[in-house]
Amino acid sequence: MNSSFRFFSCRDAVKTLIASAARVLPLVPFLVFALTPSFGAVSDENAYAEIPGSIVRLTIGTRGPGRYIYTRAIYFARDGRYQVLQDRAHATVDGYGDTTSSPSKGQYSTTWDTTQRSFLSLVLTPDGGGTPDSYILEFRGPSSGRYGGFMGGSFSIDSEVPVTGAANVSNRTWLAASRPSITGFILTGTEWRWVLVRVVGPGLAKFGVAPVAGKPSLQLFSGSGAYDVEVGAWAGDAHLVPGLQRAFEMVGAFALEETANDCASLYRLPAGAYTVIARNAGTEGEALTEVYVLPYGS
After folding, report:
1. Quick one: which of 74, 193, 194, 210 has the fewest CB in 10 Å?
2. Domain map of the chain by residue range?
3. Greater model confidence, 132 or 172
4. Nearest 5°: phi and psi at 253?
5. Under a CB-based contact definition with an 8 Å cutoff, are residues 219 and 230 in contact?
6. What is the CATH number of domain 168-297?
7. pTM for the full model?
């Protein structure tokens, strides 16, 4: 098991590159693609990036009843463990698509192709004996590249970076149907950042807070308007629960009950000013809005 990745220039024979196109790999249960090699070479033989302690984003263009973009964000720990943080399908103009595959956690392994040294095999073996997910990554730079051909996509590695400024903002307010809460934060610098946003109502009861907002929701806005749809109960999508739980652990946030109506969402955001609007469709009471900036960016 490799603890780090080293990238090399593609200098292999054309016939070797063409031969690699014959490999067909299972990616997710409903997606199979053939690897199509590229002649784009990694320019720096000494370029270096680490997978352990990083988040790898895999973006896949898939086909189904409609057309959408499928994104996985996977966290790789230094002990050889991985955890899927996000597993989402983003609908295009067709407005519909297949159901995403379930996220997983387990062990990962990496193997360099000995004949094409900008190609890396990444295997995710889930706990419980499920079918491993296999990826062939073609590096076109120190921390990004492509995999697959006709139905492939792109990937990038978000390495650990220092967090400057506030790493956590919290705002405890009274939420009622006619009284939303507004919490603002600013991301600086040139890198995109991973940001966890939570609005906790029922989850405050275990700390002796009463009464609590019965059914809070959150919506993120940027300077140009709504950044995402309104988010309700955090465990409403079973595909996202394990990843959000891992994100809670990463930032040191207290755990949330899966049956409660607290809400949470993980975003990857560019620099700028943002506003979180917390609303309440249940009994009025106290709620806590939390914003955590994760130590990852790209």
Report:
1. 210
2. 5-158, 168-297
3. 172
4. -80, 150
5. yes
6. 2.60.120.380
7. 0.70
Number of H helices, E strands in the chain: 2, 20
Residue 17, pLDDT above cutoff 80: no
- Cα 227 from chain centroid (whole Å): 16
Can you tell me the distance from the alpha carbon of 253 to that of 13, in angstroms, rounded to the nearest whole number? Answer: 51
Count of C-beta atoms within a 10 Å radius of residue 208: 6
In angstroms, the CA 3 to CA 76 distance is: 10
- Residue 124, pLDDT > 80, answer yes
Q: Which residues touch 83 (CB under 8 Å, ≥6 apart)?
A: 74, 75, 77, 105, 242, 243, 246
User: By CB neighbour count within 10 A (0-12 exposed, 13-18 middle, 19+ buried), where does 227 fall?
Assistant: middle
Task: Tell me the pLDDT band of 125, cut-offs 50, 70 and 90.
Answer: very high
Q: How many CA atoms lie within 13 A of 77 on its CB side?
A: 14
Percent of the chain with pLDDT over 70: 70
CA 174/CA 161 separation, integer angstroms: 35
- Between CA 182 and CA 177 the distance in angstroms is 14
Beta bridge partners of 138: 119, 146
HSE of 11 in the Cβ direction (CA atoms, 13 Å)?
Answer: 6
pLDDT tens digits for 67-92?
556 778 888 887 888 888 877 766 54
Exposed/middle/buried for 2, CB within 10 Å: 0-12, 13-18, 19+? middle
Q: pLDDT band for position 3 (50/70/90)?
A: very low
Euclidean distance between the first and final Cα of the chain, in Å? 24
